[in-house]
Amino acid sequence: MAILDSKGRLFGKINLLDLGAALVILLVIFGIFIFPGTSGSVAQVGSKTVPIEVDLVVRGLNVRDPEQLFNNGFQKGGKTNVIIRNQPYGQIEIKSIQQLPRTVNVFQPDGTVKELPDPKTNNFSTDFLLTLDGKAQVTTSGPVLGNSKVKIGMPFELEGFNYNFNATVIDIRIKDK
Asked: What transmembrane ranges does the database entry give (predicted)?
C-alpha cells in the first residue's frame, strides 16, 4: 500500500488539504487560548489610577440665563458627561463652578490701561471656570482619562440634559491619595 495514492490521500483515507486545514485551525485555537498576548490598552501599561482635578474655562457661552443653567443640573456636586476628542469618557463630578466677570481693557488719558467691567452690550454671553473631579491613569506621558491623554489646551465637550458646549483645559492637578 502506497503512502500517497493518485487522489492525494494519505494511506488512502485522509486528504492532504483537509489535514492542512485542520492543522491551521488547531494552531489558531492554540494561539488564542494558550498565548493570548497582552491585554488592556496601551494607556494602562505601567500606570496607576489617581484622583485628579481638571480646570476648564468656557469663553463666550451664549445662554439667556446663566443662573438657570447652573441651577438645573449643571451645578457644584452634580455630574456632567464628558467627551474628549470625540470619544465619550462618561460622567465626571463638577467640583466647583465660578462665573467670571466680563471685562474690557480701557485706555486712560495718561496712556495706562485699566480693566473695567463690560458695559453689557451683549447680555447673552457668559464666561465661567469649572473644576472637574475624577480619576485618571497616570502614565509617563501624563494623565489619561478613558483612552485620551489630558493636556492643557485640549478641548472638552460637556453634555447634559439641556446643554452641550466646549471648554478648554487650563490646569491639571494630580492629587495625592
From this structure: 16-35
